[in-house]
Amino acid sequence: MLQIETQAVGPFMKNGFIVACERTRQAVYIDPGDEVSGLLAYAKRHDLAIQHILLTHAHVDHVSGVAAARRALGVRIYLHRDDEFLYEDAVQHGLLFGLQVEPPPPVDEYYSPGQVIAFGDYEVRPHHTPGHCPGGVCLQVGKIGEAGQDLFVGDTLFAGSIGRTDLPGGDYQTLIASIRDVLFRFGDGARVYPGHGPATTIGQERRTNPFLQAE
Length: 215
Ligand SMILES: [Zn+2]
Ligand SMILES: [Zn+2]
What we know:
Blueprint: E1 2-7, E2 16-21, E3 26-30, H1 36-45, E4 49-54, H2 60-63, H3 66-73, E5 76-79, H4 84-88, H5 90-96, E6 109-110, E7 117-119, E8 122-128, E9 137-143, E10 150-154, E11 157-158, E12 161-162, H6 172-183, E13 191-194, E14 200-201, H7 202-208
Bound molecules: zinc ion (2 copies).
Residues 14, 59, 61-62, 155, 195-196 line the site of one zinc ion (ZN).
């Protein structure tokens, strides 16, 4: 079984996720942000061995805890290459909000097409979903060799809404194409864990999301 712990704190209320294999206790940390101390405590309490730090994209709310997570865990950091400019700009981006953000350490590995990142009995497959920003990805999690049905989508898709496209590198048509051509292909039963707000499913969003109704 997959064990998922979600935490979010102000001001951004961005979801950070620990996703763990219940059998082996191996896990990944997706998008370490301001909730980092809470999720690291959770991992310790549940005796989880975090193997990788995986980023859905590099906006400051999704990377503000990377330095602390890396220091505590000593594991590799993954990001899409096209978001490197945002990653390098995270400290400046934080200052715009009046926040002191610790500079995130260098990325260890850029996602590549067809890549498989393993933890315990599970694997993560990154899928490029630009539009909210150039290097956004959907992280598909499933048992090794099976079609994963748990999708960590960053700020591409939300329950009842979609990501904003007015930030640097954002593009509305590209975002809609990412949702329709990449996310919808996982099927209606796929579970969606957005970067903000509650979880949903592809079917629920395909049927009811006002931004995604066929014209
Ligand atoms: Zn974002
Ligand atoms: Zn966000």
